[in-house]
């Protein structure tokens, strides 16, 4: 007797939660569809986890959105902490190079995080304010501290923070945020390993060459 084929459609509901997996799928959905285009029900279908379980473990849609963003943001924060704690004795200039490299690599591996950030910080909302305070500020703090220290030494040009940091972050993420445009215009796969490494080198050199004064870092 042949086995009955399972019908195509909603995946079989799971009785357990793989938190990391669920939050990763949720973040991708928010990036693709925007906050308004996602529901707990639609995520239940994508993850195969019952609506009731998603509500139980993650709360409301907004709480799920926050946890998905925090999961991604924590990865870059933890990565920076691990490196700078070990390499505490290197110069600020080298720390800034490492920071830029890390953000480029993170942007390449987590484009959905950057997409959601761009969606949210365009205007004033409870979500954008939470995102800025809880996720972006801690990530920016590393760069701000390094830049301030090097500016005091005279090794980095004094540029208003809003101009400087928007330029640095914008330069890093635009290549990946506009990956479809780059593919159509230049036939470049922005997420190819060679392209990512090329972007690391180009962006780091351009930013550092533009920022440094003639005075050498100590």
CATH names the topology of the domain at 69-211 as Tetracycline Repressor, domain 2
Q: Can you give the mean pLDDT?
A: 89
Please give the number of β-strands.
0
Q: Considering the protein shown, what is the CATH homologous superfamily of the domain at 69-211?
A: Tetracycline Repressor, domain 2
Largest sheet: none
Question: In the CATH classification, which architecture of the domain at 69-211 applies?
Answer: Orthogonal Bundle
Describe what is shown at a glance.
With 218 residues, this protein is mainly alpha-helical.
Helix and strand topology:
Elements: H1 19-33, H2 40-47, H3 51-58, H4 61-86, H5 92-109, H6 111-120, H7 126-153, H8 161-177, H9 179-186, H10 193-211
Helix pairs in contact: 1-4, 1-6, 4-5, 4-7, 5-7, 5-8, 5-10
Can you describe what's shown?
- Residues 1-15 have low confidence and may be disordered.
- This protein has a domain at 69-211: Orthogonal Bundle (Tetracycline Repressor, domain 2).
- The N and C termini lie far apart (78 Å).
- The protein is built from ten helices and no strands.
- 26% of the residues are buried.
- The radius of gyration is 21 Å and the shape is globular.
- Helix 5 (92-109) packs antiparallel against helix 7.
- With 218 residues, it is an all-alpha fold.
């Amino acid at each position: 007797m042949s086995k009955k084929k399972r019908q195509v459609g909603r995946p079989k509901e799971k009785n357990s939660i793989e938190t990391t997996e669920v939050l990763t799928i949720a973040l991708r959905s928010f990036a693709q569809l925007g906050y308004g285009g996602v529901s707990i029900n639609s995520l239940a279908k994508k993850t195969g986890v019952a609506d009731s379980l998603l509500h139980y473990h993650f709360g409301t849609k907004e709480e799920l959105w926050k946890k998905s963003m925090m999961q991604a943001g924590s990865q870059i924060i933890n990565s920076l902490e691990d490196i700078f704690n070990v390499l505490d004795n290197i110069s600020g200039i080298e720390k800034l190079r490492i920071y830029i490299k890390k953000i480029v690599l993170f942007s390449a591996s987590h484009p959905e995080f950057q997409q959601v950030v761009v969606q949210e910080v365009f205007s004033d909302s409870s979500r954008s304010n939470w995102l800025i305070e809880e996720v972006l500020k801690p990530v920016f703090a590393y760069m701000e501290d390094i830049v301030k220290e090097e500016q005091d030494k005279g090794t980095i040009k004094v540029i208003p923070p809003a101009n400087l940091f928007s330029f640095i972050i914008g330069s890093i993420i635009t290549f990946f945020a506009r990956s479809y445009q780059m593919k159509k215009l230049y036939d470049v796969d922005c997420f190819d390993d060679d392209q990512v490494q090329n972007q690391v080198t180009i962006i780091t050199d351009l930013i550092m060459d533009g920022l440094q004064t003639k005075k050498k870092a100590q």
